[in-house]
Design goal:
- This protein is α+β, with helices and mostly antiparallel strands.
- The chain is built from 4 helices and 2 strands; from the N terminus they run βααααβ.
- It has helices at residues 8-14, 19-26, 30-37, 46-56; strands at 2-6, 65-69.
- It has a two-stranded antiparallel ribbon.
Length: 72
Amino acid sequence: MKEIKVHINDLLSKHDISLNRLARESNIEPARLWELANYKRKTINMGYLIRIAETLEIDDITEIITIEEVEE
């Protein structure tokens, strides 16, 4: 089975930025980012991905999301 993984926590560490600062700079509610970071959201807003990429100057979407194999 495959699953989409959102790498918010990795990005926060890599870019030395807090979730609240990323939320503020990307104009995304902190609660929405927290849900993405903790796999609590079942859907991913494409606009969020674009805003995160723009804020962190990311060109490769696989830095933000990947599709990974998970054990059932």
